Amino acid sequence: MSQPTPQKNDARLHGEIAIEENKLERFENRTTVRRYTIEFTCPEFTCLCPRSGFPDFATIRIRYVPDKHCVELKSLKLYINGFRNEKVFHEDVTNRIIQDLIDLLDPWEITVVGDFTVRGNIHTVVTATHAKQ
């Protein structure tokens, strides 16, 4: 019986490259006659614990009221997946996501919730909010 041909270790898959090169993108809000809310749920978020290196799992919820710009969804997906090999605390993840979206969009209001899966009998939920003055 023949053995499968091993793949080169340096051959990165298309998705891996796309995630590594992720860049949040925006597009112009075409409905500025009223304020409205956009909500996203990202139920497959993963990152690594900076103390143990074990994976952390979470659902990230993003809710915002756009002003002049909206976030492009494929770029958001790749951005969120970019955390999968990163060692980062729950609090930092949530605050980094909200700040990156504020910097990109300058929304009227935004809330980001990091709802992390139970680990060691502790369930962590981090909520960050921002509103224009």
Write the layout of secondary structure elements.
Blueprint lengths: L13 H7 L5 E3 L9 E11 L6 E11 L3 E3 L1 H9 L8 H16 L3 E8 L8 E7 L2
Antiparallel strand pairs: 1-4, 2-3, 3-5, 5-6
Describe this structure in words.
There is one protein chain. The protein has one domain (14-131): GTP cyclohydrolase I, C-terminal domain/NADPH-dependent 7-cyano-7-deazaguanine reductase, N-terminal domain (GTP Cyclohydrolase I, domain 2, 2-Layer Sandwich). The protein has helices at 14-20, 73-81, 90-105, and strands at residues 26-28, 38-48, 55-65, 69-71, 109-116, 125-131. The chain is 24% helix and 32% strand. It has 133 residues and is α+β, with helices and mostly antiparallel strands. The chain starts with 13 loop residues before the first helix and ends with a strand. The strands form two sheets. The protein has a four-stranded antiparallel β-sheet with strand order 2-3-5-6, with helices on one face.
Number of helices: 3
| Gyration radius, in Å | 18 Å
| Main sheet strand line-up | 2-3-5-6
Number of strands: 6
Distance between the termini: 70 Å
* Broad shape: globular
Enumerate the spans where pLDDT stays under 50 for 5 or more consecutive residues.
Answer: none
